[in-house]
Amino acid sequence: MAVPVLRLRVLQVALALLASPWFHVSFASGFLFPSIPQQRLAQTPLLVVSTHGRSKSNVCLFATETTTIEDTTDDESLRLLKIAIGAQGSSAAASILLVQINELRQQGSNTDKVAPFLTNLLENGPDARLPFWRRSKRLARFSQRARYASLRRTLDITTPPVSESESTTFTENDTEERRQQRRRRALVALLRSLSDLEDSSSKVPAIVTLERKALSDLKTPSSEELRSRIPEGLETPDYDVIDTLMGQVQIRTYQPYSVCAVSMNANRPANNATDAKVSMPELGGASSFGALAGYLFGKNQQSTAMKMTTPVFTTPTATTTTTTATKEDKQMEFVLPSNYWQNVQEAPQPIPGSGVTLQQMESETRAVLMFGGYASQKVVAAKNEQLKKALTASKQSQWKIVEEGNNKNDMMALAQYNDPFTVPWKRLNEVSVQVVASVANGAPE
Questions:
Q1: CB 63 within 8 A of CB 12
Q2: Where do the record's region annotations for Disordered lie (predicted)?
Q3: How does DSSP classify residue 285?
């Protein structure tokens, strides 16, 4: 039987990608652009044609030198999406779509080319009008529309809430375009997860497997499960857990480390030469992130590129109260590589005017509450209250919050360990506050 033209076409595109200069994408760049799992592209054939029982390794097709991603059409991209959410073993189709997205992003100075591409996938795929019977998960093995319904449900779980930069009251000014931006971001995150699924001989569609995993992992995870979400290969500050409160709050003693930091309240010029380009400038803290990423990736006085670390801290620096409002000043912090933890002055110096400063963080004790999902303003506020209550639940509590001048209970820090395209059920966040032993209640000094 002749090989279908569609599969030949996709294979041509896939093989052409192998020779492209941007095929290998570092993990660190995932904080700036949606990355593609390197091991998936290195270990798995991009697509394998059905061979009617013959070994998949026996099939080999070659692409012409002139084949490029630009040759693919919207219809072919939709077919790739159908393959990506279909049978197990089709994870490479999601990888090809991610490559297309990266190329479109590189072709333009902003996301103008990416948005229509993703919108087409959404409107003609999971967000298209579907019959009522497609809700049955059992039909997903046999029905493309039922698989789209599974993708829609998983997108609903994955779509981020309103960010801090978009609204201070969570829903104010939440326009349809902003909702669509978040929907497109969720689709990219799901494509990453689909591309990273282990190939198997299971007949369960890939999107159904992912939906089940999302629903399972969104349940209250253990501390061990949350810690497993720290990205592999990235340095993070050292600490020891010396106490646990109510089974959920850890008391940690941190060892010294150092950070590069930038104010989140100061106005930054657009397209600052010292900033790294970010893929989603509409997100809260995007300009601050770009400033720190630019410094870390080599836009410093020594032109020294450093390895990415984790987490990204958002830390209050002061709270100013007036007769009309209370304003909280914040700074964003990247942890520097460990060879600068003992002496931050040895780190590359920021370029004047970049707004980036270097800071030494001394050893301290902090109460930490871990949680998954998106760290929206509303969720973080609730977690801060939960942490405070855990520290003050008992009059015999051995730990008390350190007071900063006239500000009590206000110096809560947020730590985010994963890049913006990580699905919520694989995210680790923490809220923390500095504490000291309550000597009056008999705790050790």
A1: yes
A2: 159-181
A3: T
Residue-wise pLDDT for 345-402, tens only, equals 999 999 998 999 999 999 999 999 999 999 999 999 999 999 999 998 866 678 999 9
Please name the fold of domain 224-441: Multidrug-efflux Transporter 1 Regulator Bmrr; Chain A (3.20.80)
Cα–Cα distance for residue pair 332/285, rounded to 1 Å: 8
pTM over 0.70: yes
Contacts 24+ apart (CB under 8 A), 207-212: 207/85, 207/86, 207/140, 207/147, 207/150, 207/151, 207/154, 208/137, 208/140, 208/141, 208/147, 208/150, 209/88, 210/154, 211/137, 211/150, 211/153, 211/154, 211/157
Cα–Cα distance for residue pair 81/76, rounded to 1 Å: 9
Q: pLDDT (tens digit, 9 = 90+) per residue, 216-257?
A: 888 888 899 999 999 999 999 999 999 999 888 999 999 999
So where are the chain's domains? 5-217, 224-441
